[in-house]
Amino acid sequence: MFESTPNKLDDVKITDAEIKPRLAKIVVLGLEGCGKSTLLNVLAKRPEEGYSPTQGFNVVQIQSGECSLSVMEVGGGPSTRRYWSHFTSDMDLLIYVVDGSDKNNFNESKSELMKVLAESTNQVPCLLISNKQDLENAEKCSSIFNSKDLKEIGRKTSGNITILDATCCANGGEGVSFRETVISIMHNIITKFSSFI
Ligand SMILES: Nc1nc2c(ncn2[C@@H]2O[C@H](COP(=O)(O)OP(=O)(O)OP(=O)(O)O)[C@@H](O)[C@H]2O)c(=O)[nH]1
Ligand SMILES: [Mg+2]
Questions:
Q1: Which of 64, 90, 127, 176 sits in a 20 to 30 Å window from 192, CA-based?
Q2: Is 158 annotated as a binding residue?
Q3: Is pLDDT of 174 > 70?
Q4: What is the per-residue pLDDT for 9?
Q5: Is 157 helix (H, G, I), strand (E, B) or coil?
């Protein structure tokens, strides 16, 4: 039987334990109109809104098992893009969204991604999303990012790249399973690759 006596406290060893934050920081970037706010709306189970460019940033916080995930979108318009690097320090995961239906913007989108990675001081995992797969002409991640691109991104992410072809528009039952898929991908990357846990 367990006996509690005051003297027993003398035997207690106190060590310095690092208390890790339990809130993972996930930053969502990509050019204007690629679908970042739409993705956040899906995650937050908010109804779809029309296009209203994000001037600053939006955050939603969701719980996934033992992880709290803070998912932050920063506007992708040229004037807001200049501030991306202010948001990327200490991130645990970068989600980079490309409008898969907008071929004309692929090069600009990739070059903005390379800039973000070049400016980032730490190596973070990266989830690349080719969005708007519901549109007929949409390209998949595998054709937007060639092996040279992936090699370059891999150098800045310790090779921790995940790709996802997606339709972010919340549409009934499909929207629900898409939300769960994205949360589970974020959770897996955070727990596997990040120093978060
Ligand atoms: N067809 C289609 N349209 C989408 C999809 N995802 C988003 N959109 C539409 O694309 C437009 C822009 O979406 P937003 O999510 O506001 O874009 P954003 O990346 O947040 O843009 P900024 O805040 O300006 O950087 C909206 O009209 C959305 O409804 C998708 O998967 N398919
Ligand atoms: Mg937005």
A1: 176
A2: no
A3: no
A4: 55
A5: coil
pLDDT band at 3 (very low <50, low <70, confident <90, very high): very low
- Check the annotation: does 135 bind a ligand: no
| Paired tokens of 136 | 């007929």
CATH number of residue 52's parent domain: 3.40.50.300
First-to-last CA distance in the chain?
35
Distance CA 104, CA 101 (A): 9
Q: How far is CA 187 from the centre of its chain?
A: 10
Pocket around ligand 1 at a 6 A CB cut-off: 30, 32-38, 50-51, 53-54, 73, 75-77, 131-132, 134-135, 167-169
Query: Torsions phi, psi of 156, nearest 5?
Result: -95, -5
Q: Which 3 state secondary structure label does DSSP give 61?
A: strand
Query: Which residue do the tokens 């239906």 mark?
Result: 101
Is residue 130 domain-resident? yes
Let me know: does 44 contact 104? Beta carbons within 8 Å.
Answer: no
**Any domain includes 110:** yes
- Sheet with strand 67-74: strands edge to edge: 57-64, 67-74, 23-29, 93-99, 126-131, 161-165
Is pTM beyond 0.85? Reply is yes
**How many distinct structural domains can be found in the chain?**
1
Q: Give the number of the atom of ligand 1 that is nearest the alpha carbon of residue 49.
A: 29
| Cα dihedral 104, 136, 113, 79 sign | positive
